[in-house]
Amino acid sequence: MNAAKKARLTRAGWTTGDAAEFLDLTSEESQFVEMKLALAAGLRELREKRGLTQAELAQQLRSSQSRVAKLEAGDRSVSIDLLLRSLLAIGAAPGEIAKLIRRADSKRAA
Amino acid sequence: MNAAKKARLTRAGWTTGDAAEFLDLTSEESQFVEMKLALAAGLRELREKRGLTQAELAQQLRSSQSRVAKLEAGDRSVSIDLLLRSLLAIGAAPGEIAKLIRRADSKRAA
DNA sequence: CGTATTTATGTCAGATTGGACATAGTACCC
DNA sequence: GGGTACTATGTCCAATCTGACATAAATACG
């Protein structure tokens, strides 16, 4: 695993350093995380594009600023379900979401 | 909402008929369901392509036959997270998953 | 610098989801 | 009909996720 990838994962709260490296972050799981981070990044981009603060978006989603922060960080405590609902709520079409998921594809086999 | 769409949603356990039609199945929510159903259908297609029974796939996913049935049905009780993990586990690349999500796009504005 | 705004992190009770089990339904073959 | 293989549905409770809150950290602006 290269440094950039490790940094991405660590930033999102996924332990990577220790002996569990190859046990917990198996290929599927890391692909899953990559997808999650791609969606999270997409959400942030869209929010900023719309000139909204996290608090404003939270209101639109009927949620809280802290959860939006966690969504955008791809935190362990948020599901992809919530990310997808949020993206749809902010106006992303399924096609755009598909494009985001493709981003995760290019990061395979790191 | 046309009959085919309504049938898809009803089959998956989403109430549609009554007065809540436009309150609960708002655009975002129905897009979300469409994505879910597209992923569910994709999972079934891949499983069958691989010649696996639901029970065999369940074993591979360390889950149960009943949950696989619900996954493929897009049941309320399964999350998109689980669908995505399952798709990855069965060998779908993020690119293929993106393609599935695009399917949901063509069903907009029904 | 101070302070106002925005974003990040930690925690918790209530809600949702997941694996497992039982059981019902379906399809095919004899 | 009965038997076999597969799929669907309903129900548990343990595990995970969510919104909310408090508060810390970062950033912007004078």
What does this structure look like?
2 copies of one chain form a homodimer. In chain A, 68% of the residues lie in helices and 0% in strands. Chain A is an all-alpha fold and 110 residues long. Chain A starts with a helix and ends in a 5-residue tail after the last helix. Mean pLDDT of chain A is 82; it is low at 1-5, 7-13 and 15-25.
Q: Outline of this structure?
A:
With 110 residues, the first copy, chain A, is an all-alpha fold. Helix content of chain A is 68%, strand content 0%. The termini of chain A are close together.
State the secondary-structure class of chain A: mainly alpha
Q: What is the count of β-strands of chain A?
A: 0
Give the proportion of residues in helices of chain A. 55-70%
State the order of secondary-structure elements of chain A, H for helix, E for strand: HHHHHHH
Integer-rounded radius of gyration of chain A: 14 Å
Instruction: List segments of chain A where confidence is low: pLDDT < 50 over at least 5 consecutive residues.
Output: 1-5, 7-13, 15-25
- The shape of chain A, in one word, is globular
This entry's quaternary arrangement is homodimer
Largest interface: A-B, 23 and 23 residues
What is the topological layout?
Two copies of one chain form a homodimer.
Chain A: H1 3-11, H2 21-24, H3 27-49, H4 54-61, H5 65-73, H6 80-89, H7 94-105
Helix pairs in contact in A: 3-6, 3-7, 4-5
Chain B binds a DNA duplex (30 and 30 nucleotides) through helix 4 and helix 5.
Properties at a glance:
mainly alpha, 68% helix, DNA-binding, 110 residues, disordered N terminus, homodimer
